[in-house]
Description:
Elements: H1 15-23, H2 29-33, E1 39-42, E2 55-72, E3 75-84, E4 87-94, H3 98-103, E5 108-118, E6 121-131, E7 142-145, H4 154-168, H5 177-182, H6 188-196, H7 201-231, H8 242-251, H9 258-271, E8 278-283, H10 289-301, E9 306-310, H11 314-328, E10 335-338, H12 344-356, E11 361-364, E12 378-384, H13 391-398, E13 406-411, H14 417-422, E14 428-432, E15 443-447, H15 452-464, E16 468-472, H16 487-496, E17 504-507, H17 513-524, E18 530-533, E19 546-552, H18 559-566, E20 577-581, H19 590-597, H20 601-612, H21 615-618, H22 620-626, H23 636-650, H24 660-673
Parallel strand pairs: 4-6, 8-13, 8-14, 9-11, 9-12, 10-11, 12-13, 15-20, 16-18, 16-19, 17-18, 19-20
Antiparallel strand pairs: 1-7, 2-3, 2-5, 3-4, 5-6
Helix pairs in contact: 4-6, 6-7, 7-23, 7-24, 9-10, 10-11
Amino acid sequence: xxxxxxxxxxxxxxxxxxxxxxxxxxxxxxxxxxxxxxxxxxxxxxxxxxxxxxxxxxxxxxxxxxxxxxxxxxxxxxxxxxxxxxxxxxxxxxxxxxxxxxxxxxxxxxxxxxxxxxxxxxxxxxxxxxxxxxxxxxxxxxxxxxxxxxxxxxxxxxxxxxxxxxxxxxxxxxxxxxxxxxxxxxxxxxxxxxxxxxxxxxxxxxxxxxxxxxxxxxxxxxxxxxxxxxxxxxxxxxxxxxxxxxxxxxxxxxxxxxxxxxxxxxxxxxxxxxxxxxxxxxxxxxxxxxxxxxxxxxxxxxxxxxxxxxxxxxxxxxxxxxxxxxxxxxxxxxxxxxxxxxxxxxxxxxxxxxxxxxxxxxxxxxxxxxxxxxxxxxxxxxxxxxxxxxxxxxxxxxxxxxxxxxxxxxxxxxxxxxxxxxxxxxxxxxxxxxxxxxxxxxxxxxxxxxxxxxxxxxxxxxxxxxxxxxxxxxxxxxxxxxxxxxxxxxxxxxxxxxxxxxxxxxxxxxxxxxxxxxxxxxxxxxxxxxxxxxxxxxxxxxxxxxxxxxxxxxxxxxxxxxxxxxxxxxxxxxxxxxxxxxxxxxxxxxxxxxxxxxxxxxxxxxxxxxxxxxxxxxxxxxxxxxxxxxxxxxxxxxxxxxxxxxxxxxxxxxxxxxxxxxxxxxxxxxxxxxxx
Length: 676
């Protein structure tokens, strides 16, 4: 048996069991060994019911009676009376109706959960339940609990894992001995054994430290190797043309912020090198990233090179093109817009102009990476909201140049320092952390759903004074299992009641592109007073006259997304407002209180990383692909340790061929995170 052995070759894995593992994405022995427990149940300290007290408790009891009832849409509560020889206790489970079937047998179970005061009584909340007769005969009784993927049961994983124990105890080391010694880490096999078969709960943390360090080390080593690869590339050298840049800045109808100047200078210096630029420009909503990109495109054009700017949506691409025409036309620089909506003769004409070099700056969507698009001399590539694009899409655009172009990735989602060190470790980073002059901070307020009428009067006054408003809903259609407001129902309700005297538009992702563009154009040109929309307006929509945004069911959004949505207003000198309406009148969460008190996207990104993890910031798909089971991208101290060792390893003469597992993971991360 080895790590590549198929699970169906293991004793106890029949056809049905093998299918269950396969559905959960577990096919080989190696897959199962790396399928780590999400938590542990400690059955080594059992309380009698008479001795129970508030906190995490484990009891041995039988279920006397149990029932399940629906409370509201999408929520069912199961309540039970548990009894031992000393007394009785109530237990409650939320949306776990299967407990009724499980506990009706009359058998004894170990119940482990939080004993707390809820609904005017003390009760065990969402306790786990393990059959006493199934409990392994061991002194410590600390049991791993595995994620229930596709219905995979923890008991099954434990049973098969036990068959693999001899193999785990022989696993080879995956890190150099010098790193293990320097960082005082457990060996790989000891860490894996400890996590699957813990005998002391305090050893689990030491095992998690070892594997968490290794995950971060792999990710950071990939960044180091990507940096080394970038340094070997040769690209276009664009000399600094001071009069051109000075003329561009002079013609601007506003003054650049200090951070815009610093970012622009970073790019200009990168342009002068023969190594292609690999830079991330991160700026809070409304901080002026497009202007910085425009200045760089101006410099490239005066060196005879073309710029391609790729945006994730037609709306955003159109707005970038409009802004850049205003900035670059006075400098004699031509701008073209290429999206899926450009068809027929206009498309063919534009493609010819791009290929002949008549167009200096091409703004577009995914349409830019189609085979028909050929550039004369592509020297500078800008990818806006780069996390919306896959690695292959970014590389397809870069391949359209004879030399590796300079690359500027832009994001309006502020990235915490720890995430910048890991996921974006190969990049140089510029930050725009100031708002343009004249902008006022957006006033944010959490609003009770019971006081909507009062809020609508405030909105109506804003519209009366000539301003516009957004109303954001999570869902497109009504869902009977979800209490969240749907955009279609809210549009009809507002149109037929409180705002029937106002002009209201509807926008959501399932609409045709032409219809979406028409609605956005109507709103941007002031033909609509209110836009009822889903989160399709989250990024890049710029309507300076809009001063109010209502976000319904705001308790279901992450901080990063709430902050992005809030950035749709506050884009002019008018005072702007953001109202966060909860799903219920319950006390608002810590997350909402944080966004109510702060307009600083970088601060909120750090908070969001701690509260919800990197999926909100890095993008759910990409974060899932990282496959970090243990490491936290919010753990700055661990990242600093891993980064130090990765830098040391990358600059040494270590032979990667000695460490097959490490080499495979690093190679995977290199392909996953690289921008070019």
